[in-house]
Amino acid sequence: MSLQESAPSLAVVGVTGAVGQEFLSVLSDRDFPYSSVKMLASKRSAGKRVAFDGREYTVEELTAESFDGVDIALFSAGGSISKEFGPLAAEKGTIVVDNSSAFRMVDGVPLVIPEVNPEAMKGIKVGMGKGALIANPNCSTIICLMAVTPLHHHAKVKRMVVSTYQAASGAGAAAMEELIQQTREVLEGKPPTCNIFGQQYAFNLFSHNAPILDNGYNEEEMKLVKETRKIWNDTEVKVTATCIRVPVMRAHAESVNLQFENPLDENTAREILKKAPGVYIIDDRASNTFPTPLDVSNKDDVAVGRIRRDVSQDGNFGLDIFVCGDQIRKGAALNAVQIAEMLL
Amino acid sequence: MSLQESAPSLAVVGVTGAVGQEFLSVLSDRDFPYSSVKMLASKRSAGKRVAFDGREYTVEELTAESFDGVDIALFSAGGSISKEFGPLAAEKGTIVVDNSSAFRMVDGVPLVIPEVNPEAMKGIKVGMGKGALIANPNCSTIICLMAVTPLHHHAKVKRMVVSTYQAASGAGAAAMEELIQQTREVLEGKPPTCNIFGQQYAFNLFSHNAPILDNGYNEEEMKLVKETRKIWNDTEVKVTATCIRVPVMRAHAESVNLQFENPLDENTAREILKKAPGVYIIDDRASNTFPTPLDVSNKDDVAVGRIRRDVSQDGNFGLDIFVCGDQIRKGAALNAVQIAEMLL
């Protein structure tokens, strides 16, 4: 039973969204202890009913007063909501775990993957009487670093080239619905409805829809570059990324090429990954069985495969790997709830 | 009118397949001159009728005698058919343009992308009274090198990291049909029919189905590595690739990271690509418009975009680009017909 009087009071902000719904599912699955929970969303969604842990709750409109007496708030309602209400909540003594990009690169805000850099949130606990902001990294970064960090700790990554295969879910529930609708339309020979991305997504793929920056990278790509440095506390590591949206529902895949400072052969890499928390290996060359987005959909752990010595580098200083992770779960809700668990 | 008495006699081997059909369409579109054409396929397909250039032809069974009097034969019926009948045809004086991988890495067999290395087939012409084997490169290699070679000529590629997003068409017409069938089934909540790949392809992706070699790469990936070296006549260039099949119908995409010997800034790269034959640029950062598989489907030219300085490399010694090309057309049939045109 996770409803306990002495347990922390929770709030879920953006509870009607894809990640918000997954927050509830993960909290429940993991028996997260709580004394109360507020279901918060925009005015538009206020009054809706959501189910959690065998009860029904009414969604309340998010206001400045929403956080009175709330110990932990999980936010996933977009960057502007986080910017408006996150600091407000933290001032009132709430510890905010924020899934948006609003505070990720802000100095002093821990950016945390619990398996990777738990030390970044040292000293932040419920019951210390102090609010705080903690940022959940971007989904692509989490999924990539879950597999790469154990290798990095062994051989130090010098440079990483990432190409992503990103699911619809990263753009929210409406994008997932549009992918299904478009697919039906294309199969029926009708023109596809393009409300979310402005182009055909069914049986197609396209460069990630995040805004393009002055350097020609899109924001999604630069998140991988910058968040990796912050999470690893390593200003030297070189990262480049190309982020592509593919017609897959809810799990991302990433092709990752690694250049190491120190040698790391592929068998050692496999042994390291076998022991890595939150990671499992699918790598059967004989049957051509490797990770796919479907393997990890609705799963907690990140799958890694295609582990092989990079033939374009001399000796054992390079590896190619292929990683898949559920974008909504480990890429967002699960990671945030794991952060919340560390607050107890 | 491309039917001319003095023109070469043609044969199309594997005429009922996806590439075979595209051979006919490209020959017709380009007004390829011919005096006669034999439509060849396996016994199973013999007797079928195919349309070409306003006439109907009966498909004949491929035999050792099929090539008597044939000047140019376009082969796309798989490696084992090429191995059995290609050398036979060449001995009889036919110039074979082979789309399979059978002869690509054989010493003395030119491996040709007409825009890239036409010199490799110097001296091979219809009317010289001599047969020959000429190999069409793998689709991923052709599409990649169409965009990369002009940059290579300017700044010399030292190392190239490729991640592919490959369409169903690369596995033939049946794979394209299975993708459609599976997609319908998944939308209807039925289990997907998995005859071709043995796993769900609809709303999923997976490591390319080519056999895995001892070094952990699949054959498709090593084609990119080895064919690039042969086509560029450069044994030093370092290439690594990760080849992934995505639920897209008939055009491949490739994310390509380049490391150069000499500096090449992104504006110069754009100028070079603007002038490159068979290549066009889709690269509008303001509107987030970049190449997609649909842009190039049923098109001759390869589209390139996301042209940007690689932030993981110092100075102007690196670029990231994203390339899309029609797998059946430039990746196979068009390239082969262009080779045939050079024989005249």
From TrEMBL, chains A, B:
Substrates-to-products reaction catalysed: L-aspartate 4-semialdehyde + phosphate + NADP(+) = 4-phospho-L-aspartate + NADPH + H(+)
GO biological process: diaminopimelate biosynthetic process; isoleucine biosynthetic process; lysine biosynthetic process via diaminopimelate; methionine biosynthetic process; threonine biosynthetic process
Broad EC category: oxidoreductase
Pathway annotation from the record: Amino-acid biosynthesis; L-methionine biosynthesis via de novo pathway; L-homoserine from L-aspartate: step 2/3; Amino-acid biosynthesis; L-threonine biosynthesis; L-threonine from L-aspartate: step 2/5
Active site per UniProt: 139 (acyl-thioester intermediate), 252 (proton acceptor)
Domain Semialdehyde dehydrogenase NAD-binding, first and last residues per copy: 9-124
GO molecular function, one term: protein dimerization activity
Subunit structure: Homodimer.
Family of the protein in this entry: Belongs to the aspartate-semialdehyde dehydrogenase family.
Designated name of the protein: aspartate-semialdehyde dehydrogenase
Organism: Arabidopsis arenosa
